[in-house]
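ARCHIVE CARD
Drawer: 12
Card no.: 0347
Subject: one protein chain, sequence and derived structure
Cross-reference: see card 0346
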Amino acid sequence: MQQGSGILTPRQRRLAWLGFLLAALQAPVSAKLVADDSWLFSLCVALMVATVIIADDTSRRRPADAPSAD
């Protein structure tokens, strides 16, 4: 049984992790330094990137011969 391929290439996956980490680290720093609530945007971006990483991980773990949910 082979594993399915993900929706991201390995390079895109590494860049997604980097983007997630940078956005997740930037949110609390900007919350401390900036008076407005613009840090919430960084938090939302980090959550969206995390969702894509989780979706890619789920599709990679699905067996290649399994039917898709479409």
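Annotation on reverse: Residues 10-33 form the longest helix (24 residues). The chain has one domain: 10-61.
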